[in-house]
Amino acid sequence: MTLQQLRYAITVAETGTITEAAKKLYISQPSLTNAIHELEKEMNLVIFQRTNKGILLSGEGEEFLGYARQVLEQASILEDKYKGNGGGKKQFCVSTQHYSFAVNAFVDLIKEYGQEEYDFSLRETQTYEIIEDVAHMRSEIGILFLNDFNETVLRKILKTNDLEFHELFVAKPHVFISRKHPLADRQVITNQELEEYPYLSFEQGEHNSFYFSEEIFSTSERKKNIRVRDRATLFNLLIGLNGYTVCSGVIDKKLNGKDIIAVPLQDEGDMRIGYITHRKAVPGRLAATYLEALRKYLG
């Protein structure tokens, strides 16, 4: 097994076809196919399933490539340290719930390590996908929160997937509303005061369970509910409809806009925001730098 073979397999998985991967790697299709076959034979596994419609990544192949990405990251660190050539193209992926501080930390990471070549991914996505991304090592880090309501269920899922939760900070829940909202002058807002306004939350797809919600106290009945997929849409609706959402209270005017404010919510439990990692993965330098940046914004 060679580092080149691992890069070949990862490129095939990313492009979805041998043809596109060969073009990207500047090698012939037969050479690439042979390299993949040799890797599968040596490792005694099937990375890709061949079908009439093309190739599909197998379950064991997805797990194998998760480890392969870790190996390539460590190899890059060694090259950077001893060869002094920057270690080639840097690669890093983080999956997160919709937090502005996660974006700010990502910007800092790119400013520090974004040289001439890099391939970084920031996935603001659904809670279940965050867990899957880290479980299959597509992402080194996943950012989400635990509280008294969801902790038992989520910790069981994390344990099943060989994942660990690391707490970053404890947040008091806040209501995000427009600066022009009728309740904007309140020092503290109660659930009763919010009853007549639209409640905005992030849609969780087929895993739309209360336990995967990004918002706290998700079992409460509300008369007006709107679910969205992205942060920009949510904030536009907060302003346009006098809606509200509930989150950590960490707000960034550059990302969230000056028209959004955070007001403490009365009588609700804490949110323990943290990150998840795979037990069998060795966090790379980029992951460590990203976590350091996160702590700066949460300190």
Description:
With 299 residues, the protein is of the alpha/beta class. Among the domains are: 1-85, Winged helix-like DNA-binding domain superfamily/Winged helix DNA-binding domain (Arc Repressor Mutant, subunit A, Orthogonal Bundle); 170-270, 3-Layer(aba) Sandwich (D-Maltodextrin-Binding Protein, domain 2), CATH 3.40.190.10. It is 42% helix and 22% strand. It has 11 helices and 12 strands. The protein has helices spanning 3-15, 18-25, 29-43, 59-82, 100-113, 127-135, 151-160, 191-194, 231-241, 253-256, 285-298; strands at 48-51, 54-57, 90-96, 118-124, 141-146, 163-171, 174-178, 199-202, 225-228, 245-247, 260-264, 271-278. A 5-stranded mixed β-sheet has the order 4-3-5-12-6, sandwiched between helices. Strands 10-7-11 form a 3-stranded antiparallel β-sheet. Strand 1 (48-51) and strand 2 (54-57) form a beta hairpin. Helix 1 (3-15) packs across helix 2 (18-25), helix 1 (3-15) packs across helix 3 and helix 1 (3-15) crosses helix 4. The protein is elongated. The mean pLDDT is 85. Keywords: DNA-binding, Transcription, Transcription regulation. Belongs to the LysR transcriptional regulatory family. This is LysR family transcriptional regulator. It comes from Jutongia huaianensis. Residues 1-58 form the HTH lysR-type domain.
Secondary structure elements and pairings:
Elements: H1 3-15, H2 18-25, H3 29-43, E1 48-51, E2 54-57, H4 59-82, E3 90-96, H5 100-113, E4 118-124, H6 127-135, E5 141-146, H7 151-160, E6 163-171, E7 174-178, H8 191-194, E8 199-202, E9 225-228, H9 231-241, E10 245-247, H10 253-256, E11 260-264, E12 271-278, H11 285-298
Helix pairs in contact: 1-2, 1-3, 1-4, 5-11
